[in-house]
Design brief:
This protein is mainly alpha-helical and about 100 residues long. The chain is built from six helices and no strands.
Length: about 100
């Protein structure tokens, strides 16, 4: 279960920050996490070692986490979703005001 949660988080980070990654990082990430190719399959496809693919994926994971720690796009999106949900449930304008303040 922990692996699934980790993969979901990485996929979400990737959806926000993929354009900040190199083409190779994007390709390896999509083939490993989206297409479910093994490290060896990716390595064979690009004529590199399995370890090279593993290293690139680790670097990509670290970059994604670093981008989020500095830019907070995912956490801000989550906060916006939460505030909209609370507003829809309560119709309390204080949630709309909090949304407005986030963008100042």
């Amino acid at each position: 279960m922990e692996t699934l949660t980790k993969n979901e988080k990485l996929n979400r980070l990737f959806s926000y920050y993929k354009n900040l990654l190199t083409e190779k990082q994007q390709t390896y990430f999509m083939e490993y996490y989206y297409l479910d190719l093994s490290l060896q399959e990716i390595a064979d496809k690009y004529s590199v070692s399995r370890n090279a693919v593993f290293d690139q994926l680790k670097k990509t994971e670290n970059h994604l986490k670093d981008f989020e720690s500095k830019l907070n796009l995912v956490s801000l999106a989550d906060k916006r979703i939460d505030l909209v949900s609370k507003y829809n449930q309560t119709k309390d304008n204080k949630y709309l005001e909090q949304l407005r303040k986030m963008d100042l």
